[in-house]
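Chapter review: from sequence to fold.
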Amino acid sequence: MSSQPSKDLETFDNPHPERDYTIRIDVPEFTCLCPKTGQPDFASFHIEYVSDKQCIELKSLKLYMWSFREEGAFHEAVTNQILTDLVAACQPRFMRLTGKFNVRGGIYTTVVVEHRNADWVAPAAVTLP
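The token string follows.
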């Protein structure tokens, strides 16, 4: 596998497609460029998803996230693009992507986007005593 940035997201078969379970992935070193100034923007991304048939392969995810570092992007646009690409790659039952961007001009930005398969019903939350 390459060690160069790539927009290709690889997947592998979900080892337990019969079960709803949550996969959580943290990407703490995301970088892109401010489309207005060209200065670097830094963010942490938190991915939470319930897989259906496919799971995201982590090295390809790393190279995918790395591919944005020379691109200008508004926070809202890049967060939505990443969700779109992840959903296209693995077709999850549910996915939430949270982008927490470092301060720019004294302002922090957090963008949260979600995808829900129309056929999927979330299980009821369990509260333990």
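Two observations follow directly from the output. Helices lie at 58-66, 75-90. The beta strands are 11-13, 22-33, 40-50, 54-56, 94-104, 107-116.
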